[in-house]
Design goal:
- The protein has 188 residues and is an all-alpha fold.
- The protein contains 7 helices and no strands.
- Helix 2 runs antiparallel to helix 3.
- The longest helix has 59 residues.
- The protein is rod-shaped and about 90 Å long.
């Protein structure tokens, strides 16, 4: 073997090692993102289990608020049925909006707010919402790491070769204005 052949083989070997290293890093980042979403799924399952209990408790007090309650239940069922990460993100955003509307509706029922069962359910729901916020932040952090790797040089070349794509963050998207708006309470 000549010196030139050895140099070419070493360069090819180094390129293969870099290719493998970048590919493995992308796989790790994708798996971290999926694992982070699994953490969200755990909290969502608890949320889904609590919603029917909360709705049943409220139904006894708020018979005429049936439409709001039915909407929360329907959106909860949609969220449970979602199968993809993007589908779950969209369904969860809608459910979060509906739950915010339910909280505003409940303000009109002082007797309900004093009910011990309702208070416990409300506390559990608040705890789950806080945990969801934390795991969503972790998910978005994992997604940001993956997106950075997919979009920056030289890993973007390997990402393109192996069909790694920019992933969607878990945010409020179009509903941001609705979530930032101060809720109004109407006792009529």
């Amino acid at each position: 073997m000549t010196t030139t052949t050895i140099i070419v083989l070493v360069i090819i070997g180094l390129l293969v090692i870099f290719l493998i290293a970048f590919y493995n890093r992308l796989v790790q980042l994708r798996n971290n993102r999926e694992n982070a979403f699994a953490d969200i799924d755990v909290q969502l399952k608890q949320r889904y289990d609590l919603i029917p209990q909360l709705v049943e408790t409220v139904k006894g007090y708020a018979k005429h608020e049936r439409e709001t309650l039915d909407r929360v239940v329907a959106l909860r069922n949609q969220a449970v049925a979602a199968t993809t990460i993007d589908g779950k993100i969209a369904a969860e955003n809608q459910l979060s909006s509906a739950l915010a509307g339910l909280k505003v509706t409940l303000e009109a029922y002082p007797d309900l707010k004093a009910n011990q069962n309702f208070l416990q359910l409300q506390e559990e729901m608040s705890d789950i919402e806080n945990k969801l916020a934390a795991v969503r932040r972790f998910f978005n952090s994992a997604t940001k790491e993956l997106n950075n790797a997919v979009q920056t040089f030289p890993s973007n070349i390997i990402a393109g070769m192996f069909n790694f794509k920019k992933a969607e963050m878990f945010d409020l998207a179009g509903d941001r204005a609705a979530h930032e708006k101060t809720p109004t309470v109407n006792f009529n």
